[in-house]
Amino acid sequence: MKEDTEISFDPSWQYGEFSKINSGTAKLYYSHALEPKDITVCINAGHGTQGGSSVKTQCHPDGTPKVTGGSTAAGETHAYAVSTGMDFADGTPEREGTLALALVVKEKLLDAGYNVLMIRETDDVQLDNIARTLMANAYADCHIALHYDSTSSDKGAYFMSVPNVSSYRAMEPVASHWEEHNRLGFSVIEGLRSADIKVMGDGSAETDLTQTSYSTVPSIDLEVGDKVSDRSPETLNALADGIAAGLDIFFEQDSSENANDPAGKAPASEEESSDHSEETPAFSDGEKTGPAE
Ligand SMILES: [Zn+2]
What does the longest C-alpha to C-alpha distance in the chain come to? Predict the structure, then answer.
């Protein structure tokens, strides 16, 4: 049986030079389920890096400015290495809420046969958003960052989809991975719906994130609720059920795709690519989305 492993940042990783805070460690847990899946999911409890908002990192590896606004305005080239996050209506800092959920998700996924890379299991980890992302790239098959949004309307869960901006979708590593980011997102949203979690609109909002800009594995920021959403143990459990169901949907599609294509990922034909971009839903909810990073 494989031993759980402490994971350190390796500055020689691709894009390693862009991380500014990386002295902390993550931990890789192996599933002890009877039928382990040999799939590793990075669970990234959003925020929780002391000093993270006094350091800035480059939004895009090529130095171009952000194409959408959020906690960092469109046009900025640098963003907080890790922002502080919001406070819930009851005064709890977001980092505590995301951690509480992450710990429930961890157990649920391990029971379901997934290995789990936990970015953070305490109040503070010295890993910025780029370091977290590169750890997921190196050790995980997908990356889910957990957040609560800064609105106060209990508007429902959604993921931050890849902006439909041609320059952004043409930039590596986004160009090679944006479709799988969005497919992971919609799979997780489908899973959340199956667990009776309220979803905002079609479950997506286009946002240019540092995380997405450096991800080479399927990767999403998931906003599971907002400042006033219920955080009872029952709701955390339902969210974890939904995330696990969504991962099953995502990886089952993945393996059936691979079965049709034994050599791996087939290059999309021109026809297929244009189909995909038409499928990409435009975000038109009109409600302001809050900071994610
Ligand atoms: Zn957040």
Answer: 52
